[in-house]
Design goal:
The structure holds two protein chains of two kinds. In chain A, the strands form two sheets. In chain A, strands 3-2-1-4-5-6-7 form a seven-stranded parallel β-sheet, with helices on both faces. Chain A has a six-stranded parallel β-sheet with strand order 10-9-8-11-12-13, with helices on both faces. Chain A is elongated and about 65 Å long. Helix content of chain A is 36%, strand content 17%. Chain A folds into two domains: 7-166 and 346-371, Glycogen Phosphorylase B (Rossmann fold), CATH 3.40.50; 178-344, 3-Layer(aba) Sandwich (Rossmann fold). In chain A, helix 7 links the parallel strand 8 and strand 9. Chain A is α/β, with parallel strands linked by helices. By secondary structure, chain B is an alpha+beta fold. Chain B folds into three domains: 2-226, 4-Layer Sandwich (Glutamine Phosphoribosylpyrophosphate, subunit 1, domain 1); 229-384 and 490-567, HUPs (Rossmann fold); 391-487, no CATH class. In chain B, 43% of the residues lie in helices and 15% in strands. Classes of the chains: A alpha/beta, B alpha+beta. At the A-B interface, helix 5, strand 7 and helix 12 of A face strand 12 and helix 17 of B.
Chain lengths: 372, 609
């Protein structure tokens, strides 16, 4: 007789419960919530990098040691899928989708694919496409990424659902912290800030656009300062740009900021601005919002989701300097908005939605699978 | 007959329904429903329905929409007619349900309350509706079996929007306008956009005979509740009358029953009249059904005066025979020139047809009609198209050579090359070996506007690649022909009904008539009629339009029956030569050759608009 037991999920992810950055954070919320679903026995995480978990793992999640190298990783995944009698394969990054699809086919388990941002925007190889098309359920972090994916894969649109990022509890409102005002000499200044990697491979973030907007902003708010949080090889170019425009005093490159201090950096600012054109979602918008400051983002990518099409923040055409200037000025003029705006994306909603998606898109027990 | 619209912010992250947006979507369809407008919002503002009304059944305010059930738990916005609503109502009343209005709308609400989604199997009519079920916290989208009434939806992953027209959805301003390659490729291959695709990636049609359930996770997969292929396949196994007399009687009864049901209205019902059998027989049957005062209208073109294409003289003869109030409406080139921008604007999706319906609907509207009967569907039902002969012939002739591997593709390439240097070879001839050996391919050859290898004349490389990959034309046709009827007649009838009639004739009739606030009813496109006639039609060795012509108690004149089929033509081929706004086609070498079919040129103009 077939056992009617809860499902075991094998999650193939890049970072698992160890890495930094938007995708790693998203995966953690995702896997933790998945393990909490009814009918899920265990989520077994197989990361490619960074094996030591930062925090204790959520209940129902087990993380295997990271395996480097494509072949060794594939073998480890195969071994786990067979030995642990896996019922569902979850693929956390399109890079691994051919492996995930092959495993799913081999053990006759449904495949759940998660897509984030740029990796899903342009057409990939036939193998990748077919692998994605074999998925029982695809979740996308934003409406924009979903749309871009739908442009090139042959999947019924109803099979691609949106599961937005959430915001961690340490991001909450508070007074401007004195120690940061002191550290960066921000007394009586209007502070604009952005947070991102400054990578020359990711010039779309739009720090340069903010710098170019500054002269016009300064005519109306001469005490404005722009804090650029983050580090990377694009920094010299941005510094040079600020220099050319005579803004060396007005643009402060802060460098890397610890995750403990990051919420305070949001709180010390009067507005968060990132007119990016390459966001899968842009979790930083949520973090800034949760800390109680107005946010400004682009309207050409996944940023529209945290900004809720302009309802929760300013959504501007990132290439349009005038629009950007006027949004920055409006944000600097406005009173601090309610931090509860970001509650729309809280973890409870996320978990409930994930449970509903699981119930909708996957079999409720392993029995369905065996009977197919 | 109306226009419906709605927004459902199903995702927890979605913004509440934007009332301005909903009104913009709804009011873009003002012509569909000039008599009234309404809107409804759920108390949490997550759901909003809009409605534009053309009053036909129960003209009172009690029948206004969106309609909320007495207990407040069900809300409906509905476009169409339920022809058996009186029977349904009687049986609901017998089960103790009480009604507040005389409308078919309320019958839908109560029927759903009684039976849930299974209600769809009991409906006879043309309909597209959306129903909000507060208890289940879900939205049901439904479209009639043949797809007479349109229903489009756009799901962005957070919010689902729906409306009777693609252009209305776009008018709300929040839906992506990214093009859908499969829609464009489909238009170039078929001359109309094959559902469920539209020319926009984010907008899709609710397929004919299907329902979609939408809840907090968004739309579930489409559920089909009626398939034309299945109806024909089943009919082939049912018993059919043996002798001619019995057959004629059965056809008469079935047709009269359909016509009678299609006359249900609280306003006068008129009729389009051509010189063909279909519309003539229907007018005769309207008489038989007891309608005394019938307004008929015929379209005539100045260019055709005194020529065989002129429908007016024979139509007048039919009108006289059935003693109708008859009007002949002459359309001139000048009028076409004046109307052209409005036509292109009203055309919801690109199509190569619909001009005739535009003008005849305009004429009917001028005569004060709100409802008109049309003979649409007669050729599909009674095998009136040449394709009923040509396609089986082609398949039989090509079945063997088509089985030789690669021969078809080789011949196709060779002939395409030769064809490029001369205009003697019809572009379709090149595909004969490749496609002619089976029904789906033969259908594409017979009905196709352009062949897949001609697409590069008009579309970009990526559009063709992505579009063909997604549409898979032959498999698309194959799927509609599944389960495949065993008879030749059955197969062609399914293809014509599920492709040409659904995507071309019915769509064109909808936008062109609604632009004049006219409801067109099609008694020959009716599931009950099909159920009753299909056994006879598929199993008889020989069937012809004369069965239809002889159905009225006073049959059609023999001159009409014996007249060779012309189709409903317009002088568009001439206008394409002279109208300065319609000269884009000259830029495409393949369309500039003198022998090029006018439809290809017109398609290019439509796409360029």
């Amino acid at each position: 007789m077939l056992a009617n037991r809860p499902l075991r999920v094998l999650a193939l992810v890049t970072d698992g419960f160890s890495g930094h950055g938007g995708i790693a954070e998203y995966s953690r919320s995702f896997l933790g919530s998945l393990a909490a679903c009814d009918g899920i026995a265990e989520v077994i995480v197989l990361p490619r990098l960074n094996a030591t978990p930062l925090d204790p793992l959520p209940f129902g999640v087990g993380q295997l040691p990271a395996v480097k190298g494509r072949i060794r990783y594939s073998l480890a995944a195969l071994r786990t899928a067979i030995r642990r009698r896996i019922d569902v394969v979850f693929c956390g990054h399109l890079y691994m989708v051919p492996l995930a699809a092959a495993l799913a086919k081999l053990v006759r388990a449904p495949l759940w694919v998660q897509v984030h941002g740029i990796e899903a925007w342009e057409e990939l190889s036939v193998l990748h496409r077919r692998s994605i098309e074999s998925a029982a359920l695809i979740t996308s972090v934003s409406r924009y990424t979903r749309r871009r994916l739908l442009a090139w894969v042959g999947v019924e649109p109803a099979r691609i659902k949106v599961l937005p990022a959430t915001v961690a509890p340490q991001f909450k409102p508070g007074p401007k912290p004195e120690y940061l005002i002191e550290r960066h000499a921000l007394h009586r200044k209007k502070v604009l800030m952005s947070v991102s990697r400054l990578a020359s491979t990711e010039p779309y973030k739009g720090n340069d656009r903010v710098i170019r907007a500054l002269p016009s902003v300064l005519t109306r708010y001469p005490d404005t300062l722009y804090l650029v949080v983050g580090e990377g090889d694009d920094r010299p170019r941005l510094e040079a740009l600020a220099g050319e425009l005579g803004l060396t005093e007005k643009v402060r490159f802060v460098g890397l900021v610890s995750s403990e201090e990051l919420p305070d950096y949001f709180r010390v600012a009067d507005a968060f601005v990132m007119p990016s054109t390459g966001e899968g979602f842009g979790i930083v918008f949520l973090e800034a919002m949760a800390c109680g400051i107005p946010v400004i983002g682009g309207n050409k990518d996944g940023s529209l989701d945290p900004l809720a099409d302009g309802v929760l923040g300013f959504a501007v055409d990132p290439e349009n300097n005038e629009e950007l200037v006027s949004a920055i000025c409006s944000a600097l003029r406005s009173a601090r908005p309610e931090a509860s705006r970001s509650q729309r994306f809280n973890i409870q909603f996320f978990t409930e939605h994930l449970k509903a998606l699981r119930a909708h898109g996957l079999p409720s027990t392993n029995r369905c699978k065996r009977e197919k | 007959m109306c226009g419906i619209a709605g927004i459902y912010a199903y995702h927890y992250a979605a913004n509440e329904v934007d009332r301005t947006e909903l009104r913009q979507i709804r009011d873009h369809m003002a012509q569909r429903g000039p008599d009234g407008l309404g809107e409804w919002y759920s108390s949490d503002d997550r759901v909003g329905f809009g409605h534009r009304r053309l009053t036909i059944i129960d003209l009172s305010e009690r029948a206004a929409q969106p309609m909320v059930s007495a207990d407040g738990k069900l809300v409906l916005t509905f476009n169409g007619e339920i022809y058996n609503y009186r029977e349904l109502r009687a049986s609901l009343e017998a089960r103790g349900r009480t009604f507040r209005s005389e409308s078919d709308t309320e019958v839908l609400l109560q029927l759903y309350a009684e039976k849930g989604v299974a209600m769809v199997h009991e409906l006879r009519g043309m309909f597209a509706f959306a129903l909000w079920d507060a208890d289940k916290a879900g939205l049901l989208l439904v479209r009639d079996p043949y797809g007479i009434k349109p229903l489009y939806y756009a799901d962005d992953g957070w919010t689902l929007r729906f409306a009777s027209q693609v252009k209305a959805l776009l008018n709300g301003g929040k839906i992506s306008r990214n093009p859908e390659p499969a829609g464009w490729v489909g238009f170039c291959l078929f001359g109309s956009v094959p559902e469920p695709f539209t020319t926009f990636q984010e907008i899709r049609a609710v397929p004919a005979g299907s329902t979609i359930w939408v809840d907090r996770v968004g739309p579930h997969e489409v559920k089909q509740y009626f398939s034309i292929a299945e109806a024909y396949s089943r009919a082939e196994a049912a018993s059919a009358p043996a002798c001619d007399q019995e057959m004629q009687l059965r056809v008469h009864e079935a047709l009269l029953d359909s016509v009678r049901h299609h006359l249900v209205a609280d306003v006068p019902v008129g009729a389009f009249l051509s010189s063909g059998v279909d519309s003539g027989a229907l007018v005769g049957l309207m008489r038989d059904a007891g309608q005394r005062d019938i307004q008929t209208v015929t379209l005539a073109f100045e260019e055709f005066r005194g020529k065989p294409e002129d429908e007016a003289p024979l139509a007048a003869e039919i009108a006289a025979r059935y003693d109708t109030r008859h009007a002949t409406r002459v359309v001139t080139k000048e009028e076409f020139r004046t109307d052209l921008p409005k036509i292109l604007d009203s055309m919801d999706q690109p199509t190569i047809d619909g001009l005739n319906t535009w003008f005849v609907s305009k004429a009917a509207h001028e005569l004060g009609l709100k409802v008109a009967i049309s003979g649409l569907g007669g050729d599909e039902l009674f095998g009136g198209y040449p394709s009923f002969r040509d396609i089986p012939l082609c398949v039989r002739a090509m079945a063997f050579p088509a089985r030789i591997p690669l021969l078809g593709e080789l011949a196709r390439r060779l002939l395409t090359q030769v064809g490029k240097s001369s205009d003697v070879i019809n572009p379709k001839a090149a595909g004969l070996l490749k496609y002619g050996g089976d029904y789906p391919g033969a259908y594409l050859l017979r009905r196709g506007l352009l062949m897949p290898w001609e697409l590069e004349d008009v579309l970009g490389k990526d559009t063709i690649r992505l579009g063909l990959r997604r549409l898979k034309p032959i498999r698309h046709i194959e799927a509609l022909l599944t389960p495949r009827p065993s008879t030749r007649f059955g197969k062609v009838a399914v293809l014509e009904s599920a492709l040409y009639m659904r995507n071309q004739l019915l769509r064109d009739t909808d936008w062109a008539s609604m632009a004049h606030s006219l409801e067109v009813r099609v008694p020959l496109v009716d599931v009950e009629l099909l159920r009753r006639l299909a056994p006879t039609l598929t199993q008889r060795k020989w069937i012809s339009k004369s069965v239809l012509a002889n159905s009225p108690r006073l049959p059609l004149p023999t001159a009409i029956i014996e007249r060779p089929k012309t189709g409903f033509v317009t002088p568009i081929h001439k206008w394409l030569q002279t109208d300065a706004r319609l000269q884009h086609w000259r830029q495409v070498p393949a369309f500039a050759v003198p022998k090029c079919a006018w439809a290809r040129r017109w398609a290019y103009e439509v796409a360029a608009a």
